[in-house]
């Protein structure tokens, strides 16, 4: 364990990207679900450490950069609940080259948010924020025209909606009305109960995934491993992909946005699973 080490502070919190567009290099301070402002670190910084390791402290697993202990933006000791998550975060830091690109470190970002909880939300508020997306879920809003897009939505979205309905024994449905489908109260109650089975750390990750995909349905299917990250992202961008196939795309912007969304969705999903992991991984402290 590292005792009396010089602390290191930095931070970045995940921002909700309500209109989907290529994100800025440091998360542009957009509003978060439930209020609050995003952390705004420098986009990049020269790497100042040589070695990354983890150690176990009284509150969990810590990240060490040489002889410095990592801290959160609010100067809290950066401590995570599982060894697997600590290794994943340490790998993010270890993979940085000459320059630290903070905007690529999604797991570190999520840990900072869970530790600092800048919007001071409790578990009930986190569940409510996640559930609110069901009322405007991407896969529940359908078009009537053009007919080709309507057919595409039916063919691609209906199977996922049907799977989630069967998996959780709920009714969701879809609608072409601007008001969206009428979600039964029993469906909301079922999801509240399910989300309550997760700890607060995992709920931060679930909300993050839902925010990226704009869909509780797709997020549940992804977290439950029914669909892959690539498939979930494709389904969340179905109308965009349809328009791109028809009209073409900006040469680099589409690929950048797609890769970034995949990275965020994958990181959020991994975060949920690692925060739900009770066992530890032995003898894997980023040693050569």
TrEMBL record:
InterPro entries: ATP12_ATP_synth-F1-assembly, ATP12_ATP_synth-F1-assembly_N, ATP12_ortho_dom_sf
UniProt key word Mitochondrion: yes
Region of interest (Disordered), ranges: 16-42
Localization terms from the record: Mitochondrion inner membrane
Entry annotated with the keyword Mitochondrion: yes
Keyword entries, A-Z: Chaperone, Membrane, Mitochondrion, Mitochondrion inner membrane, Transit peptide
Bias (Gly residues): 26-37
Chief place of localization: mitochondrion
An annotated GO BP: mitochondrial proton-transporting ATP synthase complex assembly
Gene3D superfamilies to which the protein is assigned, alphabetical: ATP12 ATPase, ATP12-like
Family annotation (Pfam families): ATP12
Transmembrane segments: none
Entry membrane topology: Peripheral membrane protein
Superkingdom of the source species: Eukaryota
GO CC annotation: mitochondrial inner membrane
Function text: Plays a role in the assembly of the F1 component of the mitochondrial ATP synthase (ATPase).
Subunit record text: Interacts with ATP5F1B; involved in the assembly of the F1 component of the mitochondrial ATP synthase (ATPase). Interacts with FMC1.
Record family assignment: Belongs to the ATP12 family.
Listed name of the protein: ATP synthase mitochondrial F1 complex assembly factor 2
Organism: Centropus bengalensis
Gene that this sequence comes from: Atpaf2
């Amino acid at each position: 364990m590292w005792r009396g080490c010089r602390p290191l502070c930095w931070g970045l919190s995940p921002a909700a990207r309500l209109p989907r567009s290529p994100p800025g290099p440091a998360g542009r301070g957009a509003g978060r679900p439930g209020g609050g402002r995003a952390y705004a670190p420098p986009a990049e910084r020269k790497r100042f450490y040589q070695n990354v390791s983890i150690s176990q402290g009284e509150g969990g697993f810590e990240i060490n950069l040489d002889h410095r202990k990592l801290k959160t933006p609010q100067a809290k000791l950066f401590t995570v609940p599982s060894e697997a998550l600590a290794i994943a975060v340490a790998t993010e830091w270890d993979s940085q080259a000459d320059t630290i690109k903070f905007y690529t470190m999604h797991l570190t970002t999520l840990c900072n948010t869970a530790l600092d909880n800048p919007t001071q939300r409790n578990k009930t508020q986190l569940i409510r924020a996640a559930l609110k997306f069901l009322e405007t879920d991407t896969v529940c809003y359908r078009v009537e025209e053009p007919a080709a897009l309507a057919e595409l939505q039916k063919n691609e979205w209906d199977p996922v909606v049907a799977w989630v309905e069967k998996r959780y024994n709920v009714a969701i449905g879809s609608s072409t009305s601007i008001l969206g489908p009428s979600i039964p109260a029993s469906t909301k109650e079922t999801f509240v109960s399910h989300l309550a089975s997760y700890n607060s750390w995992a709920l931060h990750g679930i909300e993050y995934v839902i925010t990226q995909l704009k869909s509780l349905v797709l997020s549940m299917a992804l977290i439950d491993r029914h669909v892959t990250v690539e498939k979930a992202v494709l389904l969340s961008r179905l109308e965009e992909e349809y328009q791109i196939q028809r009209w073409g795309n900006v040469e680099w912007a589409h690929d950048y946005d797609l890769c970034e969304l995949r990275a965020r969705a994958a990181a959020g999903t991994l975060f949920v699973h690692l925060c739900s992991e009770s066992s530890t991984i032995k003898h894997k402290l980023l040693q050569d």
